[in-house]
């Protein structure tokens, strides 16, 4: 098989899973849209982004949005859980829960997501709730949980808008077909109305339901229309044209030509085999020939076309149909069948020598494939398969929207392409990958928590040292001195204001001059005349100058002193507050230490216990994935062994016939 | 068609019509059991992660010294953000170069936690320098300053980048949250 086919299988699978995860994300976006409708109108209404949330009124919600939009969904969910625990979502409580529900869903926590949605959506506008239930139904169905899908569909109200009613009808019919309730499916689809882009799908499903119900002619007519790319006119009864809601379309098929081509191929294939079973080989061949040779259904169609040709006795044409499959993937059951069908046709044409060669070729192919499978089984038995598979996919990015993109470049990879195309395997592998990330996360916390414990210990020691200083009372003495000084200044100010004592506010220089003048005044009486008179005049003059200055400066100096007193008062007040705060902190610190210590002592064992659980779950997933791989390979082996036995038997029979006819062995 | 041909045909018909039925689907039930256990485990781990984050924040950034600076953008028509440098009291505390995805997350309403640290009570100055492309794709660099008082409780500051429709220029603003 060519690697490109394998890559195509991966691409198909990845696209399918991406669609599933996109659905979960769209659901998260829906939560944001719900906010827009519930909250005040955004300031800038010109934004056309479907999920623009408008002004954020809780920082914690904005933080979660930032992580969500940049793609770190684990961080976003953690932020929302923290916000809920700390009760910091005052305005966006419901929006936060809706977003968390979407994130849970994308992380595979369906039960928790449904619990959130069930509780919240009842209070929401019916349109929003119905849309959310539709997404939940779709996701449940894609994950194979039909019961939950039906419950979600049942939760949708009666007054659905036209787009949602179309989506509801299509999924209801699909579930009915899966459960082989063809009457129900037909009843739903015959009354179905929906958008142009979904009409072909509805037609196809109705056609399949009718055929499986035994109404071949009616079903064939519909499938024929799909196969020819013709839709019933949306204007006709029951097929009116509606535009589906934008969000719904994001998770649904687009108008891409390849998707319509795929639908046409499926219709022609189903129709071909329906007619073949009905014994109308020519009609069957006409439809089977229309399947595109790039289509995944081409091998089945060619095999069927070959059998239709055989039915018509046109063995040469049958060989041509089957021969073109030789270059295809030899793991494809249809291709393997064709390896046996070719010699069968050659025998029918009487070309036994060629038939023998073809049988021998088929035997070599089957033996080769069985040998590859045997070798791989050894690797599988060693238990290193899953780790080896992931080793080549370690990109360093941790995320929930991860897909397996590369496979080991070995012969067995051809089988792995088929394996990983399986939804159950991808989901198991994704869980495994999530568990690996969670294990790393826990180990990271395990290291951190040890550091925090040491840090707490260091803080406690520092606290003890500070308590020793506290016991020395230096800080309290300093505050006491400051308080004394303030009281003295306050008293002095009161005295000055009461007495009007200007001298008390004089500068030290002026005070010294004033003292000297006082001293001189006492001695003036002892001086003889005229020295006494001259000195007295001079003394009076100098005293007058000083008093003048005192008077002039009094108001300003009194104001300065008041300022100084206020400054001291504030310093004392701050000091007292600080002292109180320190005292509280010192009293609180041992409580905090104990609280943190207790939390660390509770959390550390939780980390250890959960790490053990995660490692156990990893082991279970490894076994599950290996078992899944083993089962699929067992199927390959059984089929190949059966084909090999058949080819050998046919070869032996041909030899026998040749021997009985007396012909030399070819 | 002979017996052998019929048998082939039966096989092919089964391949086509029952293509979805395989042994792998049997395993789907096993997976649902396993998945259910893993769901419980994931939920417990997310809650543990939450508790550890809360412990870490309270231990490293106690409320009486905690200061957190956030960044948000409203519209961004006149400014495409490339980088932010943040200084508190003259010391660089955070520097962020934006990827396209991060800038887009801001434009869509996300709020980024730019810095979380400890500051003592009193007056402080915060300076944020924004670099990017302004109107008409011209290089643009603008600073905004906030003097704020840190009390005894946690302090939250939001840096906001807005478009001024009137001036057709970006505006850089700050907001203190209670």
Report what the structure shows.
The complex is a heterodimer of chains A (about 675) and B (about 180). Chain A is built from 24 helices and no strands. The radius of gyration of chain A is 45 Å and the shape is elongated. In chain A, helix 17 (about 335-350) runs antiparallel to helix 18 (about 350-380). Chain A has about 675 residues and is an all-alpha fold. Chain A starts with a helix and ends in a 6-residue tail after the last helix. The model of chain A is unreliable at about 1-25, about 30-55, about 230-255 and about 395-400 (pLDDT under 50). Among the domains of chain A are: about 15-160, Alpha Horseshoe (Serine Threonine Protein Phosphatase 5, Tetratricopeptide repeat); about 445-660. Chain B is an alpha+beta fold and about 180 residues long. Chain B has 2 domains: about 5-60; about 60-175, Immunoglobulin-like (Sandwich). Chain B has helices spanning about 5-15, 25-60, 100-105, and strands at about 65-75, 80-90, 90-95, 110-120, 120-135, 140-150, 155-165, 170-175. Chain B has a 4-stranded mixed β-sheet with strand order 4-1-7-8, with no helix packed on it. The interface between A and B is large, with 92 and 67 residues.
Structural key phrases:
heterodimer; A: 666 residues; disordered N terminus; B: 178 residues; alpha+beta; Immunoglobulin-like; 2 domains; four-stranded mixed β-sheet; four-stranded antiparallel β-sheet; 3 helices
In short:
The complex is a heterodimer of chains A (666) and B (178). With 666 residues, chain A is mainly alpha-helical. Chain A is built from 24 helices and no strands.
């Amino acid at each position: 098989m060519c690697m490109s086919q394998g890559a195509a299988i991966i691409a198909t699978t990845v696209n399918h899973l991406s669609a599933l995860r996109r659905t979960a994300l769209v659901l998260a976006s829906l939560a944001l849209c719900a906010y827009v409708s519930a909250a005040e109108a955004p300031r800038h209404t010109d934004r056309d982004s479907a999920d623009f949330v408008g002004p954020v009124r809780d920082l914690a919600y904005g933080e979660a949005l930032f992580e969500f939009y940049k793609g770190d969904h684990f961080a976003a969910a953690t932020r929302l859980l923290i916000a809920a625990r700390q009760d910091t979502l005052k305005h966006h409580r419901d929006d936060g829960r809706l977003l968390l529900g979407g994130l849970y869903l994308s992380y595979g926590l369906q039960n928790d997501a449904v619990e959130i949605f069930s509780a919240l959506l009842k209070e929401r506008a019916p349109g929003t709730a119905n849309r959310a239930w539709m997404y939940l139904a779709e996701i449940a169905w894609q994950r194979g949980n039909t019961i939950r899908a039906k419950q979600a569909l049942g939760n949708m109200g009666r007054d659905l808008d036209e787009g949602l009613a179309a989506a509801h009808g299509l999924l209801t019919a699909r579930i009915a077909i899966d459960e082989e309730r063809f009457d129900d499916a037909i009843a739903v689809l015959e009354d179905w109305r929906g958008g142009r882009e979904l009409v072909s799908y509805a037609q196809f499903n109705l056609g399949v339901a009718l055929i499986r119900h035994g109404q071949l002619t009616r079903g064939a007519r519909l499938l024929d229309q799909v196969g020819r790319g013709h839709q019933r006119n949306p204007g006709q009864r029951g097929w009116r044209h509606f535009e589906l809601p934008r969000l719904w379309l994001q998770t649904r098929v687009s108008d891409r030509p390849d998707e319509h081509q795929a639908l046409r191929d499926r219709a022609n294939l189903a129709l071909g085999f329906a007619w073949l079973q009905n014994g109308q080989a020519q009609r069957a061949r006409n439809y089977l020939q229309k399947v595109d040779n790039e289509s995944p259904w081409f091998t089945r169609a060619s095999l069927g076309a070959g059998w239709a040709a055989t039915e018509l006795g046109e063995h040469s044409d049958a060989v041509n149909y089957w021969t073109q499959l030789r270059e295809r993937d030899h793991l494809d059951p249809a291709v393997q069948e064709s390896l046996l069908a070719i010699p069968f046709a050659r025998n029918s044409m009487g070309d036994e020598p060629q038939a023998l060669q073809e049988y021998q070729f088929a035997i070599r192919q089957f033996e080769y494939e069985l040998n590859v499978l045997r070798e791989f089984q050894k690797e599988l038995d060693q238990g290193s398969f899953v780790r080896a598979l992931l080793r080549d996919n370690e990109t360093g990015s941790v995320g929930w929207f991860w897909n397996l993109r590369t496979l080991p470049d070995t012969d067995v990879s051809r089988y792995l392409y088929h394996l990983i195309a399986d939804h159950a395997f991808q989901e198991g592998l994704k869980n495994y990958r999530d568990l690996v990330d969670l294990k790393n996360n826990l180990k990271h916390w395990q290291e951190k928590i040890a550091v925090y414990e040491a840090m707490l210990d260091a803080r406690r020691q520092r606290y003890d040292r500070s308590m020793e200083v506290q016991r020395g009372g230096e800080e309290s003495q300093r505050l006491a001195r400051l308080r004394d000084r303030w009281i003295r200044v306050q008293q002095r100010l009161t005295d000055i204001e009461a007495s009007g004592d200007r001298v008390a506010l004089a500068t030290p220089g002026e005070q010294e001059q004033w003292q000297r003048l006082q001293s001189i005044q006492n001695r003036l009486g002892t001086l003889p005349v005229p020295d006494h008179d001259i000195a007295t005049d001079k003394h009076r003059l100098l005293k007058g100058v000083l008093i003048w200055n005192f008077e002039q400066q009094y108001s300003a100096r009194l104001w300065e002193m008041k300022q100084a007193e206020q400054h001291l008062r504030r310093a004392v007040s701050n000091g007292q507050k600080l002292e109180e705060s320190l005292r509280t902190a010192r009293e609180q610190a041992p409580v905090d230490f104990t609280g943190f210590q207790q939390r660390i002592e509770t959390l550390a064992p939780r980390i250890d216990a959960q790490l053990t659980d995660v490692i156990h779950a990893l082991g279970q997933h490894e076994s599950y994935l290996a078992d899944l791989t083993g089962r699929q390979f067992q199927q390959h082996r059984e089929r190949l062994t059966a084909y090999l036995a058949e080819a050998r038997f046919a070869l032996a029979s041909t030899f026998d016939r040749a021997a009985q006819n007396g012909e030399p062995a070819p | 068609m002979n017996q052998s041909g019929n048998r082939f045909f039966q096989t092919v018909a089964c391949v086509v019509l029952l293509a979805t039925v395989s042994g792998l689907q049997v395993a789907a039930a096993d997976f649902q059991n396993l998945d259910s256990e893993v769901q419980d485990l994931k939920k417990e781990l997310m809650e543990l992660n939450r508790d550890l984050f809360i412990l870490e924040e309270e231990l490293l950034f106690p409320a009486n010294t905690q200061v957190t600076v956030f960044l948000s953008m409203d519209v961004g028509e006149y400014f495409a953000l490339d980088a932010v440098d943040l200084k508190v009291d003259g010391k660089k505390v955070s520097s962020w170069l934006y990827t396209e995805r991060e800038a887009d997350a801001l434009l869509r309403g996300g709020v980024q936690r730019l810095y979380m640290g400890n500051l003592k009570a009193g007056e402080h100055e915060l300076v944020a320098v924004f670099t990017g492309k302004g109107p008409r794709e011209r290089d643009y660099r603008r600073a905004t300053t906030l003097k704020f008082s840190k009390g005894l409780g946690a302090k939250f500051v939001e840096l906001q980048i807005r478009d001024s429709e009137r001036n057709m220029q970006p505006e850089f603003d700050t907001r203190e949250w209670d």
